[in-house]
Amino acid sequence: MITVSQTLENVRDSSAKEVVSQCIERIEASKFNTFITVAKESAPEAAKKSKNIKGSLAGVPIAIKDNISTKGIRTTCASGILGGYVPPYDAHVIERLKEAGAVIVGKVNMDEFAMGTSTETSHYGPTLNPWDIKRVPGGSSGGSAATVAAGEVPLALGSDTGGSVRCPASFCGVVGLKPTYGVISRYGLISYANSLEQIGPIASNVADMTHLFNVVAGHDPRDSTSVPGEKDYTNALVDDVEGLTIGVPKEYFGEGIDQAVEKSVRDSVHRLEDLGASWQEVEMPHTKYALAAYYVIAMSEASSNLARFDGMRYGLRLEKDHDWHTTYSEIRSQGFGEEVKRRILLGTYALSAGYMDKYYLKALKVRTLIKQDFERALKSTDVLIAPTMPTPAFKLGEKISDPLTLYMADVNTVPVNLSGVPSVSLPCGFSNGLPIGLQIMGKHFDEETIIRTAYTFEQNTEFHTKAPEVA
Amino acid sequence: MITTKDVEHIGWLARLKMEEEQLEGYADQLNSVLDYFGQLDEVDTREVEPTYHVLEMNNVFRDDKITDCLTRDEAIGNAPKTQDGYFKAPRII
Hints:
Chain A is α/β, with parallel strands linked by helices. Chain A has helices at 4-13, 16-28, 42-49, 92-99, 142-149, 166-172, 206-216, 259-274, 290-305, 324-335, 338-350, 357-377, 403-408, 414-419, 447-459; strands spanning 35-38, 61-65, 103-108, 155-160, 175-178, 198-203, 245-249, 278-282, 383-387, 423-431, 434-441.
């Protein structure tokens, strides 16, 4: 894998243009179907310009998940309905990356509209896991995590609605952060479930992830849920957990957890204990209802957010027009994939007359209880530690045919989105050569403590030094 | 229980044209997911307020000032059908 410091050195020794052109060569030779669109024209130009930018990422190539708007670079959400869409504006995070001198080398693969846990629902075919091409990279930001793991780019942005940054980070053995809701502007992120999702940074190590986070986080008045204030998160890159109290929620080690995953995560807690932290078991009794509440809320919001895809202002339009309703229905029927349709149908049902209280309102109340579980558990502790995913990466095709089985894989990641707290996943072990992810969750707006915990763990272990053989 | 007729109706509400041969498959999948959602009924939420939004932020205002925005050409640049600088929609009535 490639680090930012090494990339900056290469930029100094040769040039940003050279670094970016080598990066594009690697992307084009990729065996993992990581990219949907490679920015072959704009990237070399941006590299040239980056010479005059003093930013912290000047000349550093970055991959962007294909649901984040990039001016002049096709943005498809991995859906047939947005095949030819070229955004006329940049997302807030893209503006910030450009100010820092980062070079956008292209748009990476994902589950269609970020709906999935495996990157198998992409209109452009699945991304393969660089550790084992028979396995999924996780999802929905599978392209983002796989391209970093494969050493194609040093940095990537994903988005996390119910685990979509942390799951692929776990399956691909890289570091990914879901920030506190409101810390990164969602302006220009194409919405799936807007009350749950955040854009998140992905890198090969904690320091690089934090540098990227530092660049993209901050207030933006164009997102009304964006929180005012700026911080320097790199101050949290401190190798010290003395006096830190870790909570270990027993509900996150439930039915279906892989034994190697459980052992690696518990060993990691003990490693942090050796380094000066203490730990205690905590109870989060409503965890088992998180999945159902999450899917009701996410699907309901999706059915509303995706109503905008009508083929009038952008996207797929059929040759022949009929009356409004027929035209609209046919475009959507042809443009959306199976999983997207399923979620729109379920969300529409959950919001329809007579069912809204039973499903949607009930789920919002359960969400309150889950949020309270976090508040209670984090009263006596500084961070919570659990497995990111209950298993290592599963096989391509293994779960895609049964939607409910696939949804179950998100059991340990969705509670974080329901409560809005920050959470990072980083490598903490291997099972039969497949990476295992450690999830560190924290209090609202306390990214610093989870970053410090992750950094300390990484500095004192070797897992982040392993990379898949891709040649 | 959701019937194939219900799927057709939900599809209509969502403006998704359903093919006859898909209805049964969707009905089965929707029923199995809704059955799973049913476990929320176990939770006592009589005294619980809903959480629509995780942060305590209300009424975020901005100044009523004119700022730069997309030009007309940029705004309609992605539209598959346009006429005289407007989006062209199918007939509604």
